[in-house]
Specification:
The protein is mainly α. The protein has 4 helices and no strands. The model has no long low-confidence stretch (mean pLDDT 90).
């Protein structure tokens, strides 16, 4: 149970960072933390005690297995998150080149 609470705390840290930080790099890092927390929650929900990996072999008895679907979803999520992070960093660099700051309030003020 404590693992779920720690994971939820990690999720809250990510949400806090996205909602309260003004620096683009900190917002991107907070989005990464948020994504990792969601991935960790998916893996925790799929975990079962005393279960084995879901690969069947000849001559081996069938035992309770871990659901492989959340693991596949998390793997896909990691790849998508990597692409999203790369795109956000590229946009942040372009904004820095144009406005000379990563502060989103300054960028909003300099818009136009």
């Amino acid at each position: 149970m404590i693992v779920y609470l720690l994971c939820f705390a990690l999720l809250l840290v990510g949400i806090y960072g996205v909602l309260t930080k003004r620096d683009l790099i900190k917002i991107i890092l907070s989005l990464g933390i948020l994504g990792y927390a969601v991935n960790l929650l998916l893996i925790l929900f799929a975990y079962r005690n005393d279960s084995v990996y879901p690969i069947l072999a000849k001559g081996k008895a069938v035992e309770p297995m871990v659901d492989p679907l959340p693991q596949a979803l998390v793997l896909t999520s990691i790849v998508i998150e990597l692409g999203t992070t790369a795109m956000l960093v590229a946009l942040a660099i372009k904004l820095f080149e144009k406005y000379g700051t990563f502060d989103i309030t300054e960028i909003r003020r300099l818009k136009g």
